[in-house]
Amino acid sequence: MKRRSIIMAAMAVMSLSRASASFGQSLDLPHPLAAVWDAWKAAYMEPNGRVVDLMQGGASHSESQGYGLLLAATMQDADAFNTIDDWTTRHLRIRQDNLLAWRWLPQTTPAVPDNNNASDGDLFYAWALIRAAKAFDRPALTERATAIARDLSDTCIQNHPDGSGRLVLTPAAKGFQRDTGLIWNPSYLMPLAMEDVADATGTDRLRIAARDGISILDDLASRGLVPDWVELRAEGSAPVAGMTDANGYEAMRTPLFLIWSGMPQHLAVEQQARAYGGANTVVGSTPTVMDRLTGRVLEVSDNPGYSAVSGLVGCAVRANAGSFMPSFDPSQPYYPATLQFMTLLAQIETLPRCVPL
Question: Which of 152, 256, 271, 320 has its C-alpha lying 20 to 30 A from 121's C-alpha?
Answer without folding.
Answer: 271
